[in-house]
Amino acid sequence: QDGRHWARIEGAHHTGALLGVGEDHPQGWEKRCAAAPKVVMHADGDLRMYYHSFDEMSQRHAVGVARSRDGIRWERVGKALEGGGPGSFDEGGVRQGHVVRDRAAGRYMMAYEGLDGNGGVSIGLAVSEDGLRGWRRCSESPALCSSEDDDEWDVAGVGAPCLVQMDGPYDWRLYYMGVGKDGEAAIGMAYSEGQGLPRFNRCDALLM
């Protein structure tokens, strides 16, 4: 009621979770976990939850989506985005999807972690007209990857993206976690300006 004191709500899953692992679901790709939820309100009585799981059949992470009328009872829709083809920056799978409704274009943007064939992580962008199906990558290249300078704070990896649309319809900020060569993690920001699909320029670390 006040944003400071919180109480757990029991969900319909036998564990009490709102969205448990998918052992009873016919698609069966979520048997290991349902993690990193991000919820977007599409309209009154239409909430979408984006989360990731690990598909044991393909041995790759994927981003799934579920829908709810009240934010408590959720129904799975299925996979929203899977890893790319051989040689792509996300061939090893996708996870940590963060979805925002693009006010200018009326569509949905997803920033996500893409894992390459060697386990390296970069940040990709995908777009969908309705936020449920038809997700497609904005580019065959990542939107943001690790710094090429060995002395930079995010040279060992970037991930955990949080995409924010600013007041200008084509102005975006991408907050993310960066990892240095010593293993220390920090929070950084990249910005995008101009029309069209976002292209990001990194700033210095915001929080070390």
TrEMBL record:
- Annotated InterPro entries: Glyco_hydro_beta-prop_sf
Taxonomy, superkingdom = Eukaryota
Checking PANTHER family in the record gives:
ARABINANASE_LEVANSUCRASE_INVERTASE (PTHR35279:SF1), PTHR35279
Protein name, per record: Glycosyl hydrolase family 32 N-terminal domain-containing protein
Which source organism does the UniProt entry give?
Aegilops tauschii subsp. strangulata (Goatgrass)
